């Protein structure tokens, strides 16, 4: 028989205030199954009337042991685990992982593959922000935004399906390039999206940006100062809404981001509304990047020519003995990177997504650690929520845009 | 290694007893546990490493001395530099001082390392498990911890295995 563990006040005695022990404040459980926690997040909220005294996040309900599992798979096979971390940012997770491998073995990526990676990760960023704008507006009772946002997200997922065969769990980027080249319909589909989308962002903004009900719920709520954000390692739009213009695409460009002209939207207020503005502007900036990358999409191979790490094309296998041997070795034993450890980070829709990858010279990663942005961003929740009403808590959780798959790994 | 990072490492070497390894342009600084707090304090206040990206660990089992490396990945926004600080930890007494007083977000990261590797952080305000259930036995990311499996049930031992399977029964 399994035991049902009951949490007593004793366990959290050192976390709640003295008033809770004496029964002057109420300790309330919220979640883990709660629609506005955006996943399986449990919050223990200490309340004085309707005012929040403290919030204690309890995470781990979505822990799937990705890091442990990846240690048991070869480098190529471990990549499918990365899709499942932050399920709204699959392309970004793939990118972070393959970039770590490419750094570890010093592998070159052809320019066409780089440009396609940029287009797809930026589309993914828009898709992720669309889920965020839909769900967090829904939390504040603005129902129609959700329906509109998911309509456009579907267009992006269709593009992903066209490339990789999957809407969400793509595994499309591979070490040294892509799984295969994009289909011929790809460019038209992206162009169509780029044409339609700016008007659609205007639509969302018309519903929210100047809506007095939305402003009442967001302006001045959940303030995060610049110093607090840095102290807690907050990254991404949440950091940029607190006045720090820090974006890895700009400060340490990867995948050729230095060729594209885009801005980093920054606000100084640090409240829920500022975070909303940053993300809406980011969608427009991402669209600019997609447009530019598509306009100068180079032709050429989409995979590196380094046969020790990247499988040969199918056409070669039938005619070249060497290609057949390489293919066989790569898919049975896997490739063996040199010994060493690297840390490589990309800008995910939520912040700095870092991969610590250590190799012991065997075909399986010795250690993979995911520095996931939501994990650090959620840690500031007690600071953001203190002193606000319990109804504002859902607005604050929505505004830091957490994904529980990203936190619990 | 970048020139700016090189000069940071040089200044560190003058002040602290440490070894430096370079790999793919990254600097990995190896330091003993007793110097950790001073080193991080120095890096934060003097060298502008104002953000802690992550804290994690690696288990080198069956090696015992040291069995673990605890890794602090630091980021400097003003100089756009990254630095990795690695601290060896022995198997017999896996304890390190907490750095929550220097970097606030180390709190959850240290809880994660305790949960996954069983390395204690002395002085941590709230060192509970964070990802695994509170009553979990063992530390999953240690190398001597099995990946896990499910016992196959056959007709002759179906009931026997069912008895000890950890799921809710009536």
Structure description:
The complex is a heterodimer of chains A (409) and B (170). Chain A is of the alpha+beta class and 409 residues long. Chain A has a domain at 66-304 and 336-371: Cytochrome-c3 Hydrogenase, chain B (Orthogonal Bundle), CATH 1.10.645.10. Chain A has 18 helices and ten strands. Chain A has helices spanning 18-21, 66-71, 79-83, 90-105, 111-139, 143-164, 186-208, 212-218, 226-231, 237-240, 248-251, 272-295, 314-317, 321-332, 373-378, 381-385, 390-400, 404-408; strands spanning 26-30, 33-34, 39-40, 42-48, 51-58, 173-174, 177-178, 340-348, 351-359, 367-371. In chain A, strands 1-4-5 form a three-stranded antiparallel sheet. In chain A, a hairpin with a 4-residue loop joins strand 2 (33-34) and strand 3 (39-40). In chain A, helix 4 packs antiparallel against helix 5 (111-139) and helix 7 (186-208) packs antiparallel against helix 12 (272-295). In chain A, 52% of the residues are buried. Chain B is α/β, with parallel strands linked by helices. Chain B has a single domain, classed as NADH:ubiquinone oxidoreductase Nqo5 subunit (Beta Polymerase, domain 2, 2-Layer Sandwich). In chain B, 25% of the residues lie in helices and 26% in strands. Chain B has four helices and seven strands. The longest helix of chain B has 13 residues, at 3-15. The interface between A and B is large, with 45 and 43 residues.
Give helix % range of chain B: 10-25%
Beta-strand segment tally of chain B? 7
Low-confidence stretches of chain B: none
Largest sheet of chain A: 3 strands, antiparallel
CATH class of chain B: Alpha Beta
**Which value, in Å, is the CA radius of gyration of chain A?**
23 Å
**Largest sheet descriptor of chain B:** 5 strands, mixed
Largest contact between chains: A-B, 45 and 43 residues
Overall spatial form of chain B = elongated
Rg result of chain B = 20 Å
- Give the full name of the CATH homologous superfamily of one domain in chain A: Cytochrome-c3 Hydrogenase, chain B
Mean pLDDT across residues of chain A:
88
Strand order of the largest sheet of chain A: 1-4-5
CATH class of one domain in chain A: Mainly Alpha
Q: How is the CATH topology of one domain in chain A named?
A: Cytochrome-c3 Hydrogenase, chain B
